[in-house]
Design a protein that fits this description.
The structure is a single chain. It is built from nine helices and eight strands. By secondary structure, the chain is of the alpha/beta class. It has an eight-stranded mixed beta sheet, with helices on both faces. α2 crosses α8 and α6 crosses α9. It starts with a helix and ends with a helix.
């Protein structure tokens, strides 16, 4: 399966509202799909920001198909198409050491980890590195990567009421990032809806910095969540054989969250 081609084909066939929000470092398009109505609440769900977590792009298609009962959602299924191509090519080719190494790639094609490239206490994370790498490289400066820059620009344009980032793995939900107490109460309540829908526990990530969720919470002042799908015992990258189990747990999460806004 070529994931980028699948998302591109889905875009061509999709009859609803859709747009291209930017391009990757290697020129692949970043596709977005809108489902629902332009009424409160409007969310953004983004997937496959980390290359080896490409399976979440297929979860996005399931979420699009199920829709939302209230408000609307912009879905961005494949934020890191270059990285996903690197991982999928390595995953298919075999077991040589170099290919196995690339099967665990998280970054974009330039070695920037997109989920530490946002201007939210950028470069202060415990695991951050400061030169191109398969993971954790923060980039030369915030939003230096075309993919994170496109997602940031799109998010500011839409002005969502919430965002959800879909990652693998661990079956946990992260929701906190230095928000004030009044926002913390709001965000915990919404995180609890996601927890009830998926069965995933709420978790803390004290060393987080530079993530999309972090930026949405701190800079935009909105509730934002990172959902880690798939059992932690499974090895990266999760393959299509795990998709049905992920959908069984997470298929209605976006619907339930949209319905839970007051």
């Amino acid at each position: 399966m070529n994931l980028y081609r699948e998302i591109r084909s889905f875009y061509a066939d999709f009859r609803g509202e859709k747009r291209i929000i930017g391009s990757s470092a290697e020129g692949r398009r970043l596709y977005a799909f809108f489902v629902g109505e332009h009424a409160y609440p409007v969310g953004i769900c983004q997937y496959a920001m980390h290359a080896r977590e490409w399976i979440t792009a297929l979860l996005a298609l399931e979420h699009i198909a199920r829709g939302v009962p209230r408000g609307g959602v912009w879905f961005v299924p494949l934020v890191n198409p270059d990285g996903a191509a690197i991982v999928q090519n390595a995953y298919r080719k075999g077991r040589r050491a170099r290919e196995k190494e690339f099967s665990l790639w998280k970054a974009n094609a330039e070695g920037v980890d997109l989920n530490v490239n946002f201007p939210a206490r950028w470069g202060s994370g415990k695991s951050n590195v400061f030169s191109p790498a398969p993971e954790n490289y923060v980039g030369k400066f915030p939003l230096c990567a075309p993919e994170s820059r496109a997602l940031s620009r799109f998010t500011r344009e839409i002005g969502p009421d919430y965002t959800v980032s879909w990652h693998t793995k661990g079956e946990e939900i992260y929701w906190r990032f230095h928000q004030p107490s009044e926002a913390e109460e709001r965000d915990r309540r919404l995180a609890a809806i996601l927890s009830a829908s998926t069965g995933y526990a709420l978790a803390e990530s004290p060393d987080s910095a530079g993530g999309y969720k972090d930026w949405c919470v701190e800079s935009l002042g909105i509730p934002a969540f990172t959902v880690e799908v798939g059992r932690d015992a499974l090895p990266h990258p999760l393959g299509t054989g795990e998709l049905s189990g992920i959908v069984a747990r997470c298929g209605n999460a976006v619907r339930d969250l949209s319905e839970g806004f007051i």
